[in-house]
Design a protein that fits this description.
Blueprint (H helix, E strand, L loop, with lengths): L6 H9 L15 H15 L3 H14 L6 H14 L3 H7 L12 H14 L3 H13 L7 H14 L3 H14 L4 H16 L3 H13 L4 H17 L3 H12 L7 H17 L3 H14 L3 H17 L3 H13 L5 H14 L3 H14 L6 H14 L3 H14 L3 H17 L4 H9 L7 H17 L2 H14 L6 H14 L3 H12 L6 H16 L3 H14 L5 H13 L5 H14 L6 H14 L3 H14 L6 H14 L3 H9 L8 H14 L3 H14 L3 H18 L6 H13 L6 H17 L3 H12 L17 H16 L3 H14 L4 H14 L5
Helix pairs in contact: 2-3, 3-4, 4-5, 4-6, 5-6, 6-7, 6-8, 7-8, 8-9, 8-10, 9-10, 10-11, 10-12, 11-12, 12-13, 12-14, 13-14, 14-15, 14-16, 15-16, 16-17, 16-18, 17-18, 18-19, 18-20, 19-20, 20-21, 20-22, 21-22, 22-23, 22-24, 23-24, 24-25, 24-26, 25-26, 26-27, 26-28, 27-28, 28-29, 29-30, ...
Length: 837
Amino acid sequence: MSVMGNRFILSVVAMGLFVFTLPPLHAEPTDDEKKSLHAAEQSYKDGAFDLCNDRVSALLKKYPKSELAAAAELLQARALYQLGRSDAAVAALNLPIDQVPENLRADTLFWQAESLLDLGKWPDAEAKYRAVIALKDNAGHTDAANLGLAWALFKQGKEADALPLIQALIKDQPATPAGWQAQLLLAKIQLAKNQLKEAIAGLEALLASKPEPGLAFETDYWLGEAYVANNQADQGIIAYQKITNEPKAFPKSLVAKAFLGLGRAEHALHQDDQAMLAYEQTYKLTDNETTRLDAFRAYLQSARAGGQLPEAVTKLQEFAKTSDASAPGALFAIGSALAEDREDDKAIGILESLLVAYGTSPWVPATNYQLGQLYAREEKPAQAIKALQSCIDANTDPVLVRSARFQLGYVLLRQTKDYAGAAAQFAQISDGTDSSAENAAYNFLLAQAYLGKSDIFMKAESDFEKRFPKSSHAKEIALAEGQLLANQGKTDDAKAAYQKAIALPGTDPGQEALLKALADLQYQTNDLAGSRTTCQMIVDQFPSDALAAAQRGILIDYELKKLNEDQVEQALVQLADKYKNAAGAPEAYFRLGEFYFYRQDFVKAQDAFQQLIANYPNSGSVDHAYFYAGQAALSHQDYGAAKTLLEKVPDNSIFKPDARLWEGRVYHEQLNFDQAVPFFDAVLATEKTGSDFVQANLLKGQCLFEMGTKDATNYPKAVAAFDQILKSKDGSIAERNEAAVRKAKCLEKMNQTSEAMALYLDVLYGRVAGDDATSPTPPEFSWQFKAGMEAGRLREAQKDWRGAIEVYKRLEQIGGAHQQLVHDLINKLRRDNYIYE
């Protein structure tokens, strides 16, 4: 519940007792000074607080050393308070109390307390009120100070101390301004506690006692608030209009608030055109920046509801041009409204312009916070971090700073993966037991888990469980703990953490995530029976999202030999049929296709993938299905279908390079080498490293080699393709050795026999892929064997029998399926060429 403060009414309580008793003067004030101060006082009494402020400012500017300056400044602070500018009032009353003239100390302390109360600084306000009450001569502020003290105590949760002060005034001073004000304060407390019927009854009774006009207006305002809170917006409108329809209603700050309440009541009744008019009156009347911002936001909200948001934005922008005081709040409200409508670029532009044009506005920290959220949503973490850090550095509103720290931590955690930085932010806001502390502490744990800091994690987790024993994050924390332990190789401890949390009540998404993580870990550690049991738990507890678990259960049964291939096929087909109308249906067909594919039943695999495409054309799995269906078609030599399916993989799919590669393979298998090369070039245009880069170069080189039989200029081109692999760090040992052997074959065709021989020997002795040349069992055999046979062939052609024997000895040493063949070849060369050593 927002606090109006006592403002004009409390000033009435104290007015008769507020007398300026001037200290001895060093120079008698002139008649003009006295007249100016008297005019300012009269403006205050008339409720013209803005005029009072202007007149005091003019007096102090004209007579800066006037003996009336202290009294004038106090009067100005009171006027600022009545205008809703309590922060300015506090700033105006900034002298230490012992430097304030003694006759003004009681009034200074009292208005300091009132201003602090209005700003929600309850402990500071309490201290000032107690100081007023403790004075021997408090200028008649006792009753008003007790009322303010009661509200400050209540807002700090000290209701037992607050109520006796209020009840004493109601009992001892009935039908007096102080007693009426106590009745109003009691109703406000009831309203704050959501005791709406009691509050309404008390406020109606207070009005029935016919209090003086100022108190009656304030009572009408709070009655309107109570009615709206009680879902009686129509009655609220009547109460507010007793103020807004009365030309003599005062003070202006209360009238502005009444218009704001009126607009909210009308908005609740879907009378958005009338609501916009009320909000417009609010932001034109009020001098309080918070109230003005509330009015701007509510105005735009009603405009959105009435389909008039663009027009309302334009109108507010025009209004902002007429008032530097209003412009920052208007721009902030517009930016926030655009952000709510997901018009992020426009919102960012408006808010950034606010920072440039109004860099000293009090809304700058909130603007930076809003920008931080927008930039984070736009996946622009650097700008988000800068904006949020600026908000934090301003260090104005502790609640806003706390929110900014949380958002900054979240950006660091989720977007930049700066887990240490995220942990540092969350650590600063994780104290306490409220929901915001709980969320911060939870994210602190996640950051420590990502950092692998198990000791810190375990200690923080224990503290979290003590502070938040019923936290909704319990299962997510257990999931993070299990992943942390599993990453450290403590798989048994990880399983135990998962199982302990799974046993907790609840079948929320956290439970499902735990079961899936446990099933995965069990499968990875070869606990197939355990994984099968956990998969069944997923099926039982989450039947609408159990497809993946059910599929894994079937495949585990196959691995455990509980099902044969035909039974697995039947089970997967039944599963796909069962889930054909569920969200996971495409996945069912995809897994079925995979099963057929790995079983090398390519016809059925192609059919399963094409069923997915036909039945679920909007599925995110369609591009995958086109690719694997094309592969399956090629595998059973249905070249036409393979080309058609692979061509349909969307250009924006991550599978597009693979699809182009396989399209090239189709033409390669059909010996259409010149048609295959452009597909490999298309792959190489986007893939500069990685598996596709290697395969495209290998296949391109093979095609060019074959094309060399008709045009020898293709051999150097083939060499260039193989060199792309050999000059890079990509490719497996086998792939690099293959590239070298194929390059050597090209060199032979180019009559560069010695270079070819050297390359064959490099492969044979492991110098290309970095094998250990002395190892009897190198990690790659096939291409080394081919290189050795080619090198031996060349040496035999050169009649270098001993050289050939040395090559074949290396092959015999390597071993493998052809070891005996090589051994016989060595013996034959020795016999035929009389080499016996």
